[in-house]
Protein backbone atom coordinates (compact mmCIF):
# COMPACT_ATOMS: atom_id res chain seq x y z
CA UNK A 1 0.00 0.00 0.00
CA UNK A 2 1.25 3.48 -0.88
CA UNK A 3 1.38 5.70 2.20
CA UNK A 4 2.86 9.02 3.18
CA UNK A 5 5.87 7.11 4.44
CA UNK A 6 6.86 5.59 1.10
CA UNK A 7 6.00 8.06 -1.61
CA UNK A 8 6.62 11.65 -2.67
CA UNK A 9 4.74 14.51 -0.96
CA UNK A 10 2.79 15.48 -4.07
CA UNK A 11 0.26 18.29 -3.91
CA UNK A 12 -2.62 15.97 -4.78
CA UNK A 13 -1.72 13.61 -1.95
CA UNK A 14 -1.40 16.51 0.44
CA UNK A 15 -4.71 17.91 -0.80
CA UNK A 16 -3.36 21.43 -1.35
CA UNK A 17 -2.61 23.88 -4.14
CA UNK A 18 0.32 26.28 -4.03
CA UNK A 19 0.79 29.45 -6.03
CA UNK A 20 4.42 30.50 -5.90
CA UNK A 21 3.67 34.19 -6.28
CA UNK A 22 1.54 34.18 -3.14
CA UNK A 23 4.29 32.73 -0.96
CA UNK A 24 6.68 34.56 1.32
CA UNK A 25 8.93 31.54 1.74
CA UNK A 26 11.43 33.32 3.98
CA UNK A 27 8.67 34.25 6.41
CA UNK A 28 7.44 30.64 6.45
CA UNK A 29 10.97 29.40 7.14
CA UNK A 30 11.58 31.94 9.90
CA UNK A 31 8.33 31.11 11.71
CA UNK A 32 8.86 27.35 11.48
CA UNK A 33 12.51 27.53 12.51
CA UNK A 34 11.72 29.73 15.50
CA UNK A 35 9.32 27.09 16.82
CA UNK A 36 11.76 24.29 16.03
CA UNK A 37 14.74 25.96 17.69
CA UNK A 38 12.76 26.77 20.80
CA UNK A 39 11.44 23.21 21.12
CA UNK A 40 14.90 21.72 20.58
CA UNK A 41 16.61 23.88 23.19
CA UNK A 42 13.85 23.11 25.69
CA UNK A 43 14.10 19.41 24.90
CA UNK A 44 10.37 19.21 24.15
CA UNK A 45 10.16 16.20 21.84
CA UNK A 46 6.38 16.41 21.37
CA UNK A 47 6.62 20.01 20.18
CA UNK A 48 9.43 19.08 17.79
CA UNK A 49 7.59 16.17 16.20
CA UNK A 50 4.44 18.29 15.87
CA UNK A 51 6.39 20.36 13.35
CA UNK A 52 7.02 17.33 11.13
CA UNK A 53 4.69 16.05 8.42
CA UNK A 54 3.34 12.52 8.24
CA UNK A 55 6.05 10.20 6.96
CA UNK A 56 8.84 12.76 7.46
CA UNK A 57 12.49 11.68 7.44
CA UNK A 58 15.43 12.77 9.60
CA UNK A 59 18.92 11.85 8.45
CA UNK A 60 21.87 12.31 10.79
CA UNK A 61 25.57 11.89 10.11
CA UNK A 62 27.50 11.68 13.40
CA UNK A 63 26.22 14.88 15.01
CA UNK A 64 23.43 13.31 17.09
CA UNK A 65 24.15 9.58 16.71
CA UNK A 66 27.88 9.07 16.07
CA UNK A 67 26.66 7.02 13.12
CA UNK A 68 24.96 7.29 9.73
CA UNK A 69 21.24 6.97 10.49
CA UNK A 70 17.90 7.76 8.86
CA UNK A 71 14.69 7.82 10.90
CA UNK A 72 11.19 7.99 9.49
CA UNK A 73 7.75 8.66 10.94
CA UNK A 74 7.34 7.56 14.54
CA UNK A 75 11.00 6.52 14.73
CA UNK A 76 11.92 10.22 14.83
CA UNK A 77 10.17 10.62 18.19
CA UNK A 78 12.02 7.68 19.76
CA UNK A 79 15.34 8.88 18.34
CA UNK A 80 14.84 12.33 19.89
CA UNK A 81 13.76 10.87 23.22
CA UNK A 82 16.89 8.72 23.29
CA UNK A 83 19.41 11.29 22.07
CA UNK A 84 18.35 14.92 22.51
CA UNK A 85 19.23 15.27 26.18
CA UNK A 86 22.52 13.41 25.68
CA UNK A 87 23.84 15.49 22.78
CA UNK A 88 22.58 18.86 24.09
CA UNK A 89 21.68 20.41 20.75
CA UNK A 90 21.72 24.21 21.09
CA UNK A 91 22.45 27.61 19.54
CA UNK A 92 20.48 26.93 16.36
CA UNK A 93 20.92 29.68 13.77
CA UNK A 94 19.19 30.01 10.42
CA UNK A 95 21.38 30.75 7.38
CA UNK A 96 19.60 33.48 5.47
CA UNK A 97 21.58 33.05 2.25
CA UNK A 98 20.43 29.48 1.56
CA UNK A 99 16.66 29.56 1.56
CA UNK A 100 14.92 28.46 -1.63
CA UNK A 101 11.38 27.82 -2.80
CA UNK A 102 11.72 24.80 -5.08
CA UNK A 103 9.33 23.07 -7.44
CA UNK A 104 11.27 20.01 -8.67
CA UNK A 105 8.13 18.87 -10.49
CA UNK A 106 4.82 20.65 -11.14
CA UNK A 107 3.11 18.59 -8.41
CA UNK A 108 5.86 18.95 -5.76
CA UNK A 109 6.68 22.11 -3.84
CA UNK A 110 8.97 22.49 -0.88
CA UNK A 111 10.99 25.19 0.82
CA UNK A 112 14.64 24.39 1.49
CA UNK A 113 16.77 26.09 4.13
CA UNK A 114 20.04 25.58 5.99
CA UNK A 115 21.10 26.21 9.58
CA UNK A 116 23.93 25.69 12.04
CA UNK A 117 23.89 24.35 15.59
CA UNK A 118 26.07 23.13 18.43
CA UNK A 119 26.11 19.99 20.51
CA UNK A 120 27.93 19.18 23.72
CA UNK A 121 31.07 18.21 21.80
CA UNK A 122 30.70 19.58 18.29
CA UNK A 123 29.52 22.06 15.69
CA UNK A 124 26.94 20.98 13.16
CA UNK A 125 25.06 22.04 10.07
CA UNK A 126 21.56 21.20 8.96
CA UNK A 127 19.24 21.27 5.98
CA UNK A 128 15.46 21.03 6.13
CA UNK A 129 12.58 21.06 3.67
CA UNK A 130 9.07 22.20 4.44
CA UNK A 131 5.95 21.05 2.61
CA UNK A 132 2.45 22.60 2.66
CA UNK A 133 -0.40 21.18 4.76
CA UNK A 134 -4.18 21.35 4.34
CA UNK A 135 -4.64 23.66 7.30
CA UNK A 136 -2.28 26.19 5.74
CA UNK A 137 0.77 25.45 7.85
CA UNK A 138 4.07 24.17 6.51
CA UNK A 139 5.78 21.19 8.14
CA UNK A 140 9.14 19.48 7.75
CA UNK A 141 9.33 16.60 5.33
CA UNK A 142 13.12 16.16 5.51
CA UNK A 143 15.66 17.07 8.18
CA UNK A 144 19.41 16.54 7.82
CA UNK A 145 21.95 17.09 10.59
CA UNK A 146 25.69 16.75 10.06
CA UNK A 147 28.76 16.98 12.30
CA UNK A 148 31.13 19.64 10.94
CA UNK A 149 33.78 20.08 13.64
CA UNK A 150 34.75 19.09 17.17
CA UNK A 151 34.80 21.81 19.81
CA UNK A 152 38.34 22.62 20.82
CA UNK A 153 39.87 20.71 17.92
CA UNK A 154 39.48 22.79 14.75
CA UNK A 155 41.14 21.87 11.48
CA UNK A 156 44.49 23.61 11.22
CA UNK A 157 43.68 25.72 8.21
CA UNK A 158 44.24 29.38 7.38
CA UNK A 159 45.37 31.34 10.45
CA UNK A 160 45.52 28.11 12.50
CA UNK A 161 48.29 26.61 10.38
CA UNK A 162 51.93 26.62 11.54
CA UNK A 163 53.39 30.14 11.35
CA UNK A 164 56.87 29.28 12.62
CA UNK A 165 59.71 30.07 10.18
CA UNK A 166 61.55 27.03 8.87
CA UNK A 167 65.01 28.55 8.16
CA UNK A 168 65.86 26.19 5.31
CA UNK A 169 65.15 22.93 7.14
CA UNK A 170 62.05 21.99 5.17
CA UNK A 171 63.65 19.17 3.17
CA UNK A 172 65.15 17.41 6.19
CA UNK A 173 62.01 17.95 8.27
CA UNK A 174 59.87 16.54 5.48
CA UNK A 175 62.07 13.46 5.08
CA UNK A 176 62.04 12.85 8.81
CA UNK A 177 58.27 13.22 9.06
CA UNK A 178 57.71 10.71 6.23
CA UNK A 179 60.20 8.17 7.63
CA UNK A 180 58.49 7.86 11.06
CA UNK A 181 61.82 6.80 12.53
CA UNK A 182 61.14 8.12 16.03
CA UNK A 183 57.49 7.23 16.51
CA UNK A 184 54.90 5.17 14.68
CA UNK A 185 51.88 6.99 13.22
CA UNK A 186 48.49 6.85 14.90
CA UNK A 187 46.77 5.91 11.64
CA UNK A 188 48.02 3.78 8.77
CA UNK A 189 46.12 3.99 5.48
CA UNK A 190 46.39 1.23 2.88
CA UNK A 191 46.08 2.78 -0.58
CA UNK A 192 47.19 6.11 -2.02
CA UNK A 193 44.29 6.99 -4.31
CA UNK A 194 41.74 9.70 -3.73
CA UNK A 195 40.30 7.80 -0.73
CA UNK A 196 43.58 7.50 1.11
CA UNK A 197 44.94 10.94 0.25
CA UNK A 198 41.75 12.79 1.16
CA UNK A 199 41.52 11.09 4.54
CA UNK A 200 45.22 11.57 5.26
CA UNK A 201 45.01 15.30 4.57
CA UNK A 202 41.93 15.60 6.78
CA UNK A 203 43.71 13.81 9.62
CA UNK A 204 46.78 15.97 9.20
CA UNK A 205 44.65 19.08 9.60
CA UNK A 206 43.28 17.57 12.81
CA UNK A 207 46.83 16.90 14.05
CA UNK A 208 46.52 13.10 13.84
CA UNK A 209 49.75 11.41 12.74
CA UNK A 210 49.09 9.40 9.56
CA UNK A 211 51.03 7.33 7.02
CA UNK A 212 49.71 6.32 3.58
CA UNK A 213 51.13 3.13 2.05
CA UNK A 214 50.80 2.86 -1.72
CA UNK A 215 51.83 -0.24 -3.64
CA UNK A 216 52.58 1.54 -6.90
CA UNK A 217 55.40 3.88 -7.71
CA UNK A 218 54.55 7.09 -9.58
CA UNK A 219 56.91 5.94 -12.34
CA UNK A 220 54.90 2.71 -12.79
CA UNK A 221 51.45 4.00 -13.58
CA UNK A 222 51.33 1.85 -16.67
CA UNK A 223 49.16 4.37 -18.49
CA UNK A 224 47.97 2.68 -21.64
CA UNK A 225 46.21 3.55 -24.86
CA UNK A 226 44.09 6.69 -24.92
CA UNK A 227 40.37 6.06 -24.66
CA UNK A 228 37.38 8.29 -24.36
CA UNK A 229 36.82 10.45 -21.28
CA UNK A 230 33.59 9.96 -19.44
CA UNK A 231 32.68 12.38 -16.70
CA UNK A 232 32.16 16.15 -16.50
CA UNK A 233 34.30 18.02 -14.03
CA UNK A 234 31.34 18.79 -11.74
CA UNK A 235 29.53 15.47 -11.93
CA UNK A 236 29.71 12.48 -9.62
CA UNK A 237 31.06 9.08 -10.66
CA UNK A 238 33.54 6.49 -9.44
CA UNK A 239 37.12 7.09 -10.44
CA UNK A 240 36.61 9.73 -13.10
CA UNK A 241 36.97 13.40 -12.38
CA UNK A 242 34.40 15.04 -10.11
CA UNK A 243 33.44 18.56 -9.29
CA UNK A 244 36.30 20.25 -7.35
CA UNK A 245 37.90 16.96 -6.33
CA UNK A 246 39.61 17.81 -3.08
CA UNK A 247 38.71 19.75 0.01
CA UNK A 248 41.97 21.67 0.42
CA UNK A 249 43.13 22.35 -3.14
CA UNK A 250 40.64 23.38 -5.80
CA UNK A 251 41.31 22.73 -9.45
CA UNK A 252 41.98 25.52 -11.89
CA UNK A 253 39.03 27.13 -13.65
CA UNK A 254 40.81 26.24 -16.89
CA UNK A 255 40.44 22.49 -16.24
CA UNK A 256 38.53 20.90 -19.15
CA UNK A 257 34.90 20.02 -18.57
CA UNK A 258 35.70 16.43 -19.59
CA UNK A 259 38.98 15.27 -18.13
CA UNK A 260 41.17 13.43 -20.68
CA UNK A 261 41.16 9.76 -19.68
CA UNK A 262 43.39 6.76 -20.19
CA UNK A 263 43.35 3.24 -18.91
CA UNK A 264 45.58 2.83 -15.92
CA UNK A 265 46.32 0.45 -13.09
CA UNK A 266 47.05 2.79 -10.23
CA UNK A 267 45.88 4.69 -7.24
CA UNK A 268 43.46 2.45 -5.38
CA UNK A 269 46.10 0.49 -3.51
CA UNK A 270 45.95 -2.98 -5.01
CA UNK A 271 45.76 -3.45 -8.74
CA UNK A 272 42.03 -4.16 -8.71
CA UNK A 273 40.95 -3.64 -12.29
CA UNK A 274 41.50 -1.56 -15.38
CA UNK A 275 40.24 1.64 -13.86
CA UNK A 276 39.37 4.54 -16.07
CA UNK A 277 41.77 7.17 -14.83
CA UNK A 278 43.13 10.35 -16.29
CA UNK A 279 46.87 10.91 -16.45
CA UNK A 280 45.98 14.55 -15.84
CA UNK A 281 44.07 13.54 -12.72
CA UNK A 282 46.82 11.17 -11.60
CA UNK A 283 49.28 14.05 -11.86
CA UNK A 284 46.87 16.16 -9.84
CA UNK A 285 46.67 13.62 -7.04
CA UNK A 286 50.46 13.35 -6.87
CA UNK A 287 50.67 17.13 -6.72
CA UNK A 288 47.98 17.15 -4.03
CA UNK A 289 49.94 14.74 -1.84
CA UNK A 290 53.16 16.72 -2.25
CA UNK A 291 51.61 20.17 -1.84
CA UNK A 292 49.80 19.15 1.34
CA UNK A 293 52.85 17.22 2.57
CA UNK A 294 50.92 14.01 3.09
CA UNK A 295 53.31 11.26 4.30
CA UNK A 296 53.17 8.58 1.58
CA UNK A 297 55.33 5.49 1.15
CA UNK A 298 55.16 4.44 -2.50
CA UNK A 299 56.49 1.14 -3.89
CA UNK A 300 55.41 -0.33 -0.55
CA UNK A 301 52.79 -2.88 0.39
CA UNK A 302 50.94 -3.81 3.56
CA UNK A 303 51.49 -7.56 3.64
CA UNK A 304 49.97 -8.46 7.02
CA UNK A 305 48.01 -6.90 9.86
CA UNK A 306 46.69 -8.24 13.14
CA UNK A 307 44.85 -6.83 16.14
CA UNK A 308 46.65 -7.52 19.40
CA UNK A 309 44.89 -7.97 22.79
CA UNK A 310 45.60 -4.36 23.75
CA UNK A 311 43.58 -3.09 20.80
CA UNK A 312 46.59 -1.98 18.75
CA UNK A 313 47.24 -3.02 15.16
CA UNK A 314 50.50 -4.68 14.19
CA UNK A 315 50.98 -3.85 10.51
CA UNK A 316 53.78 -5.21 8.33
CA UNK A 317 54.89 -2.98 5.46
CA UNK A 318 57.31 -4.28 2.83
CA UNK A 319 58.98 -2.25 0.09
CA UNK A 320 60.19 -3.13 -3.40
CA UNK A 321 63.76 -3.53 -2.15
CA UNK A 322 62.74 -6.39 0.13
CA UNK A 323 62.94 -4.47 3.42
CA UNK A 324 60.05 -4.59 5.86
CA UNK A 325 58.92 -2.85 9.01
CA UNK A 326 56.22 -3.57 11.56
CA UNK A 327 54.18 -0.56 12.66
CA UNK A 328 52.07 -0.41 15.80
CA UNK A 329 49.06 1.82 15.14
CA UNK A 330 45.67 2.52 16.68
CA UNK A 331 43.74 2.77 13.43
CA UNK A 332 44.08 0.79 10.19
CA UNK A 333 42.22 2.19 7.19
CA UNK A 334 41.70 0.33 3.94
CA UNK A 335 41.34 2.73 1.02
CA UNK A 336 41.62 0.06 -1.65
CA UNK A 337 38.46 0.40 -3.71
CA UNK A 338 35.64 -2.02 -4.39
CA UNK A 339 37.53 -5.28 -4.17
CA UNK A 340 39.96 -7.65 -5.79
CA UNK A 341 38.64 -10.29 -8.12
CA UNK A 342 41.80 -11.35 -9.90
CA UNK A 343 41.99 -15.02 -10.65
CA UNK A 344 38.37 -15.69 -9.68
CA UNK A 345 36.47 -16.56 -12.83
CA UNK A 346 33.04 -18.10 -13.30
CA UNK A 347 33.37 -21.78 -14.15
CA UNK A 348 31.87 -23.44 -17.21
CA UNK A 349 32.26 -26.94 -18.58
CA UNK A 350 35.00 -27.19 -21.17
CA UNK A 351 37.10 -24.25 -19.99
CA UNK A 352 40.12 -26.55 -19.78
CA UNK A 353 39.56 -27.58 -23.41
CA UNK A 354 39.55 -24.04 -24.79
CA UNK A 355 42.66 -23.45 -26.88
CA UNK A 356 42.56 -19.67 -26.65
CA UNK A 357 43.19 -17.23 -23.83
CA UNK A 358 40.79 -16.66 -20.90
CA UNK A 359 41.15 -13.42 -18.94
CA UNK A 360 39.38 -11.58 -16.19
CA UNK A 361 38.95 -7.89 -17.00
CA UNK A 362 41.50 -7.04 -14.30
CA UNK A 363 44.10 -8.92 -16.34
CA UNK A 364 43.33 -7.16 -19.62
CA UNK A 365 45.94 -4.56 -20.62
CA UNK A 366 45.38 -3.15 -24.10
CA UNK A 367 43.50 -3.96 -27.26
CA UNK A 368 46.60 -4.27 -29.42
CA UNK A 369 47.65 -7.32 -27.39
CA UNK A 370 44.97 -9.20 -29.34
CA UNK A 371 45.33 -7.73 -32.81
CA UNK A 372 44.04 -10.07 -35.53
CA UNK A 373 42.12 -12.25 -33.07
CA UNK A 374 38.41 -12.78 -32.32
CA UNK A 375 37.52 -11.51 -28.85
CA UNK A 376 34.38 -12.14 -26.79
CA UNK A 377 33.76 -9.87 -23.79
CA UNK A 378 31.32 -11.36 -21.28
CA UNK A 379 29.48 -8.57 -19.50
CA UNK A 380 27.38 -5.52 -20.35
CA UNK A 381 27.01 -3.48 -17.18
CA UNK A 382 29.02 -1.56 -14.59
CA UNK A 383 31.60 -2.90 -12.16
CA UNK A 384 29.82 -5.03 -9.62
CA UNK A 385 30.37 -6.46 -6.16
CA UNK A 386 28.93 -9.39 -4.32
CA UNK A 387 25.93 -8.21 -2.35
CA UNK A 388 25.63 -9.97 0.97
CA UNK A 389 22.26 -8.54 1.90
CA UNK A 390 18.99 -9.83 0.43
CA UNK A 391 20.55 -10.78 -2.91
CA UNK A 392 23.31 -13.04 -1.64
CA UNK A 393 25.89 -13.88 -4.26
CA UNK A 394 24.45 -11.81 -7.11
CA UNK A 395 27.30 -10.52 -9.25
CA UNK A 396 26.90 -7.72 -11.75
CA UNK A 397 29.10 -6.89 -14.70
CA UNK A 398 31.80 -4.36 -15.35
CA UNK A 399 31.25 -1.21 -17.43
CA UNK A 400 34.82 -0.02 -17.24
CA UNK A 401 35.81 -3.26 -18.89
CA UNK A 402 32.79 -4.58 -20.79
CA UNK A 403 31.81 -1.42 -22.66
CA UNK A 404 35.06 0.49 -22.69
CA UNK A 405 37.22 -2.53 -23.49
CA UNK A 406 34.84 -3.41 -26.33
CA UNK A 407 35.16 0.15 -27.65
CA UNK A 408 38.92 -0.02 -27.30
CA UNK A 409 39.02 -3.27 -29.28
CA UNK A 410 36.81 -1.86 -32.02
CA UNK A 411 38.82 1.33 -32.32
CA UNK A 412 41.98 -0.76 -32.78
CA UNK A 413 40.47 -2.96 -35.48
CA UNK A 414 39.94 -6.06 -33.34
CA UNK A 415 36.88 -8.26 -34.02
CA UNK A 416 34.93 -8.03 -30.75
CA UNK A 417 31.58 -9.41 -29.57
CA UNK A 418 29.85 -8.35 -26.35
CA UNK A 419 27.90 -11.13 -24.64
CA UNK A 420 25.04 -9.60 -22.63
CA UNK A 421 23.87 -11.94 -19.89
CA UNK A 422 21.06 -9.76 -18.52
CA UNK A 423 19.41 -6.41 -19.21
CA UNK A 424 21.30 -3.16 -18.65
CA UNK A 425 20.37 0.37 -17.62
CA UNK A 426 21.79 2.87 -20.11
CA UNK A 427 22.02 6.60 -19.49
CA UNK A 428 24.00 9.08 -21.55
CA UNK A 429 26.21 11.36 -19.53
CA UNK A 430 25.20 14.26 -21.78
CA UNK A 431 21.52 14.12 -20.84
CA UNK A 432 21.71 12.26 -17.53
CA UNK A 433 23.99 14.65 -15.70
CA UNK A 434 22.05 17.66 -16.91
CA UNK A 435 18.86 16.24 -15.39
CA UNK A 436 20.33 14.68 -12.26
CA UNK A 437 22.51 17.61 -11.22
CA UNK A 438 20.45 20.58 -12.34
CA UNK A 439 20.52 23.46 -9.84
CA UNK A 440 23.18 21.68 -7.80
CA UNK A 441 26.44 20.52 -9.38
CA UNK A 442 26.51 22.99 -12.24
CA UNK A 443 28.97 25.69 -13.18
CA UNK A 444 26.55 28.34 -11.91
CA UNK A 445 25.30 26.26 -8.98
CA UNK A 446 25.94 26.81 -5.27
CA UNK A 447 29.44 26.45 -3.80
CA UNK A 448 30.57 22.84 -3.81
CA UNK A 449 30.54 22.50 -0.01
CA UNK A 450 26.94 23.72 0.04
CA UNK A 451 26.01 21.42 -2.82
CA UNK A 452 27.55 18.46 -0.95
CA UNK A 453 25.37 19.08 2.08
CA UNK A 454 22.22 19.62 0.06
CA UNK A 455 22.93 16.41 -1.85
CA UNK A 456 23.51 14.48 1.38
CA UNK A 457 20.32 15.88 2.89
CA UNK A 458 18.15 13.73 0.62
CA UNK A 459 17.67 10.40 2.41
CA UNK A 460 17.94 7.49 0.01
CA UNK A 461 14.36 6.52 0.82
CA UNK A 462 13.30 9.82 -0.74
CA UNK A 463 15.93 9.76 -3.47
CA UNK A 464 14.49 6.48 -4.72
CA UNK A 465 11.16 8.07 -5.64
CA UNK A 466 12.71 11.21 -7.10
CA UNK A 467 15.09 9.03 -9.12
CA UNK A 468 12.20 7.07 -10.62
CA UNK A 469 10.86 10.28 -12.11
CA UNK A 470 14.25 11.51 -13.24
CA UNK A 471 14.94 8.15 -14.85
CA UNK A 472 11.88 8.59 -17.07
CA UNK A 473 13.02 12.11 -17.95
CA UNK A 474 16.44 10.84 -18.92
CA UNK A 475 14.96 7.97 -20.93
CA UNK A 476 12.88 10.45 -22.92
CA UNK A 477 15.94 12.61 -23.58
CA UNK A 478 17.90 9.48 -24.61
CA UNK A 479 15.02 8.03 -26.65
CA UNK A 480 16.80 8.00 -30.00
CA UNK A 481 19.78 6.04 -28.66
CA UNK A 482 17.67 3.68 -26.55
CA UNK A 483 15.38 2.89 -29.49
CA UNK A 484 18.43 2.16 -31.64
CA UNK A 485 19.76 -0.23 -28.99
CA UNK A 486 16.41 -2.00 -28.74
CA UNK A 487 16.29 -2.35 -32.51
CA UNK A 488 19.73 -3.94 -32.35
CA UNK A 489 18.41 -6.41 -29.74
CA UNK A 490 20.24 -4.95 -26.73
CA UNK A 491 18.15 -5.59 -23.61
CA UNK A 492 17.39 -2.51 -21.48
CA UNK A 493 15.84 -1.78 -18.10
CA UNK A 494 15.13 1.28 -15.96
CA UNK A 495 17.64 0.40 -13.27
CA UNK A 496 17.24 -1.06 -9.80
CA UNK A 497 13.66 -0.39 -8.64
CA UNK A 498 13.22 1.63 -11.86
CA UNK A 499 15.39 4.32 -10.26
CA UNK A 500 18.15 4.56 -12.85
CA UNK A 501 21.73 4.05 -11.80
CA UNK A 502 21.60 5.70 -8.34
CA UNK A 503 20.19 2.78 -6.38
CA UNK A 504 22.21 0.33 -8.46
CA UNK A 505 25.36 2.15 -7.37
CA UNK A 506 24.43 2.02 -3.71
CA UNK A 507 23.10 -1.53 -3.73
CA UNK A 508 25.58 -3.36 -5.98
CA UNK A 509 27.88 -0.78 -7.55
CA UNK A 510 26.73 -2.18 -10.85
CA UNK A 511 23.99 -2.94 -13.32
CA UNK A 512 24.23 0.16 -15.52
CA UNK A 513 26.35 1.83 -18.17
CA UNK A 514 26.84 5.59 -18.37
CA UNK A 515 27.24 6.08 -22.07
CA UNK A 516 29.93 8.24 -23.63
CA UNK A 517 29.70 6.72 -27.10
CA UNK A 518 30.06 2.96 -26.85
CA UNK A 519 26.30 2.39 -26.99
CA UNK A 520 26.16 3.84 -30.49
CA UNK A 521 28.89 1.43 -31.58
CA UNK A 522 26.67 -1.40 -30.33
CA UNK A 523 23.54 0.06 -31.94
CA UNK A 524 25.37 0.45 -35.26
CA UNK A 525 26.64 -3.13 -35.14
CA UNK A 526 30.28 -2.08 -34.96
CA UNK A 527 30.56 -3.93 -31.67
CA UNK A 528 28.88 -7.30 -32.23
CA UNK A 529 26.21 -8.42 -29.76
CA UNK A 530 25.23 -11.87 -28.51
CA UNK A 531 22.42 -12.22 -25.96
CA UNK A 532 19.86 -14.73 -27.29
CA UNK A 533 20.91 -17.62 -25.06
CA UNK A 534 22.98 -18.48 -22.00
CA UNK A 535 26.41 -20.07 -22.21
CA UNK A 536 26.29 -23.86 -22.03
CA UNK A 537 29.97 -24.65 -22.28
CA UNK A 538 33.34 -23.74 -23.72
CA UNK A 539 34.54 -25.56 -26.84
CA UNK A 540 38.14 -25.79 -28.06
CA UNK A 541 37.45 -22.91 -30.43
CA UNK A 542 34.93 -20.75 -28.57
CA UNK A 543 31.58 -20.86 -26.79
CA UNK A 544 28.50 -23.02 -27.21
CA UNK A 545 25.12 -21.73 -26.03
CA UNK A 546 22.02 -23.44 -24.68
CA UNK A 547 20.10 -22.79 -27.92
CA UNK A 548 22.72 -24.74 -29.86
CA UNK A 549 24.45 -21.73 -31.39
CA UNK A 550 28.23 -21.32 -31.22
CA UNK A 551 30.54 -18.31 -31.16
CA UNK A 552 34.18 -18.67 -32.26
CA UNK A 553 36.78 -16.90 -30.11
CA UNK A 554 40.51 -16.67 -29.63
CA UNK A 555 40.26 -14.57 -26.46
CA UNK A 556 37.46 -14.50 -23.87
CA UNK A 557 37.42 -11.66 -21.35
CA UNK A 558 35.19 -12.00 -18.28
CA UNK A 559 33.93 -8.56 -17.28
CA UNK A 560 31.97 -10.04 -14.42
CA UNK A 561 32.63 -7.86 -11.41
CA UNK A 562 35.21 -7.29 -8.71
CA UNK A 563 34.07 -9.49 -5.84
CA UNK A 564 33.45 -8.77 -2.17
CA UNK A 565 34.86 -5.45 -0.96
CA UNK A 566 36.19 -7.26 2.08
CA UNK A 567 38.56 -9.30 -0.11
CA UNK A 568 41.17 -6.56 0.35
CA UNK A 569 40.92 -6.86 4.13
CA UNK A 570 41.01 -10.64 3.92
CA UNK A 571 44.24 -10.58 1.90
CA UNK A 572 46.00 -8.65 4.66
CA UNK A 573 44.20 -9.63 7.88
CA UNK A 574 43.20 -13.22 7.16
CA UNK A 575 39.91 -15.07 7.33
CA UNK A 576 39.29 -15.11 11.09
CA UNK A 577 39.28 -11.34 11.50
CA UNK A 578 37.65 -10.57 8.14
CA UNK A 579 34.76 -12.94 8.84
CA UNK A 580 33.89 -10.73 11.84
CA UNK A 581 33.85 -7.62 9.67
CA UNK A 582 30.51 -6.08 8.76
CA UNK A 583 29.31 -5.97 5.16
CA UNK A 584 30.82 -3.10 3.17
CA UNK A 585 28.63 -1.29 0.59
CA UNK A 586 25.01 -2.03 -0.19
CA UNK A 587 22.18 -0.41 1.76
CA UNK A 588 21.05 -1.22 5.28
CA UNK A 589 17.40 -1.24 6.31
CA UNK A 590 17.42 2.54 6.82
CA UNK A 591 18.90 3.22 3.39
CA UNK A 592 22.40 4.01 4.64
CA UNK A 593 25.49 2.55 2.97
CA UNK A 594 26.95 -0.36 4.91
CA UNK A 595 30.37 -0.38 6.45
CA UNK A 596 32.44 2.29 4.76
CA UNK A 597 33.07 5.54 6.66
CA UNK A 598 31.50 4.02 9.81
CA UNK A 599 31.78 1.18 12.30
CA UNK A 600 32.99 -2.12 10.82
CA UNK A 601 32.52 -4.08 14.02
CA UNK A 602 36.26 -4.36 14.68
CA UNK A 603 38.05 -1.76 16.86
CA UNK A 604 40.25 0.62 14.92
CA UNK A 605 39.41 -0.84 11.48
CA UNK A 606 37.97 1.47 8.80
CA UNK A 607 37.10 1.34 5.13
CA UNK A 608 37.38 4.58 3.16
CA UNK A 609 36.07 4.43 -0.39
CA UNK A 610 33.97 6.13 -3.02
CA UNK A 611 34.26 8.53 -5.90
CA UNK A 612 36.05 11.84 -5.58
CA UNK A 613 32.92 13.57 -4.32
CA UNK A 614 32.15 10.95 -1.68
CA UNK A 615 35.77 11.03 -0.57
CA UNK A 616 35.81 14.80 -0.32
CA UNK A 617 32.67 14.79 1.86
CA UNK A 618 33.04 11.62 3.92
CA UNK A 619 36.78 11.85 4.53
CA UNK A 620 36.00 14.45 7.16
CA UNK A 621 33.44 12.15 8.80
CA UNK A 622 36.04 9.39 9.18
CA UNK A 623 38.65 11.87 10.38
CA UNK A 624 36.28 13.37 12.97
CA UNK A 625 35.46 9.93 14.38
CA UNK A 626 39.15 9.03 14.69
CA UNK A 627 40.01 12.40 16.23
CA UNK A 628 37.15 12.14 18.74
CA UNK A 629 38.33 8.68 19.76
CA UNK A 630 41.90 9.90 20.18
CA UNK A 631 40.75 12.83 22.35
CA UNK A 632 38.45 10.67 24.47
CA UNK A 633 35.24 12.46 23.51
CA UNK A 634 33.69 9.78 21.32
CA UNK A 635 30.60 8.34 22.97
CA UNK A 636 28.57 5.25 22.14
CA UNK A 637 27.03 4.98 18.68
CA UNK A 638 23.27 5.15 18.46
CA UNK A 639 23.26 2.26 16.03
CA UNK A 640 20.68 -0.02 14.49
CA UNK A 641 18.90 -2.09 17.10
UniProtKB/TrEMBL annotation:
Which domain of life does the UniProt lineage start with? Eukaryota
Q: Which UniProt keywords are present, listed alphabetically?
A: FAD, Flavoprotein, Oxidoreductase
UniProt entry tagged with the keyword Oxidoreductase: yes
Q: Which Gene3D superfamilies match?
A: FAD/NAD(P)-binding domain
Q: Which residues form the Pyridine nucleotide-disulphide oxidoreductase N-terminal domain?
A: 187-230
Q: Which InterPro entries match?
A: Auxin_biosynth/cation_transpt, DHPH_N, FAD/NAD-bd_sf, Flavin_mOase-like
User: Know the name of this protein?
Assistant: Pyridine nucleotide-disulphide oxidoreductase N-terminal domain-containing protein
Amino acid sequence: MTTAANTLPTLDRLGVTVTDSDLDHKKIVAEWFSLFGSAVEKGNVDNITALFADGALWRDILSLTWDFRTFQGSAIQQFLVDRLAEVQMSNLKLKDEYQRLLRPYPDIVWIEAMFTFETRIGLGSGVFRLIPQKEGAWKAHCMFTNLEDLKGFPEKLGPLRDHAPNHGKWDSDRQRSVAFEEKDPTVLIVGGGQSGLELASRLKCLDVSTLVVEKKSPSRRQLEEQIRSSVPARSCLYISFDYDPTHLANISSTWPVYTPAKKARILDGYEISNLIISSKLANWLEYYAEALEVPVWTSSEVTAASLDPSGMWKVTVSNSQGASRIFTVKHLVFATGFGSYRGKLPTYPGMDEFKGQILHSSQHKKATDHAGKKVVVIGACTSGIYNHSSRVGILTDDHETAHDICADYYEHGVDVTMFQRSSTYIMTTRNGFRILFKDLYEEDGPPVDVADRINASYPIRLTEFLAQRRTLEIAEADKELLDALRNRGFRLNLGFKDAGFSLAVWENAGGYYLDVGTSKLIADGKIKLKNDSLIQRFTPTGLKFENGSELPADVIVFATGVGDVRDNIRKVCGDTLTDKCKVIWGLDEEGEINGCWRDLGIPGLWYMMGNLAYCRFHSKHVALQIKAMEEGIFSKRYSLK
